[in-house]
Hints:
Shape: globular
Mean pLDDT: 87
Largest sheet: 6 strands, antiparallel
Number of helices: 1
Helix content: under 10%
Number of domains: 2
CATH superfamily of the largest domain: Galactose-binding domain-like
Low-confidence stretches: 3-25, 288-305
Number of strands: 24
Amino acid sequence: MATYGQLNADNLTSSTGGVISPNITSLRNRIINGAMVIDQRNAGASVTPSGTGKSYLIDRWCYLSSQTSKFAFQQNAGSVTPPNGFINYLGATSQSAYTVGSSDYFLLSQYIEGLNVADLGWGTSNAKSVTFSFWAYSSLTGNFGLTINNNNNYYYPYLYSIPVANTWTYITVTIPGPTSGTWLTTNGQGIAIQFSLGAGSSLVGTSGTWTSTGYLGATGQVNVVGTNGATFYITGVQLEVGTQATSFDYRPYGTELALCQRYYETSYYPGYVVPTNACPNYVHISIGNASQSYVGAAGAGNAQTTGYVYYRVNKRIQAPTVVTYSYSASTTGVASKGWTGADLSASTAIVNNTASFGFSIYNNSGSTATVDGFSIMIHYTSYAEL
């Protein structure tokens, strides 16, 4: 069942007369960053994914497709006014008029960790129904597609309507809990939420029916990728237990940021695109004693181990992917001198002993660059996405 209309986020009443339940202080929403407020990677800059694998846009939201460079994505793309109660949205803009092939797909997605949906009991006789709700805005009108699935063997395609162009429309979809399929309840991928910006004829199926066929859209959907310059924006995305949408679970910024940092963390300040040499903060690592006056110099013994970086938030997996950057030039794998900020020689910041709580740095044994004050400076990113 879908409901369309304008929702006033201030008085929590829909234009169709339905009263929305008052906000409850909890983590009702299984979507992280559903209000699109956290953007650690791009700080509001536009990005056009050039690959066909997962490309993360703003925190927890990624894009994957069968064709390259077909969409540009940006927090607050087009600078339209968000719905009442929101200050951000995620926007997609089609880069060409692409004719969708039978096996093509273009998906704006969030993958939910199994530990966060274990209580739903999906795949069992006790599976709970959920309600998926969001605000949508497009330059196109008609029926649009989405799919909720386990990215493995069970899919729920759905059609929803945007009847008026360039107007925010509030959508709710009640989804019966699936009693079949394999749904992880570990730190792996539990549920995939995917907005279909285009899907070929072999990848669309009947709306509102669970199926073991790998549908990535719904029959009759508008393919946004088919119109050059077409726009599609979303915000206020929520997935919750029950058969009625409640008010958006707008969590404090610090809480939302910490939830995002379980999957991706950076040393750069909010508001700085990663990487950049303009960001004034950095991680300052003490080498520890005067015997370590050279970074990994030949014969320096334990001089190779320079220190440890502890994350702000423990990561989803034991060994996330860590990339280090210099302080002064945003060069990967290079450390900078602790006092002057000048880069040391190449490959002087080698990540070692990665763990869910942090990582250590050791230095290229061929480097003989003197370290000012027995310390180095780096920036880093740590990736533990699903």
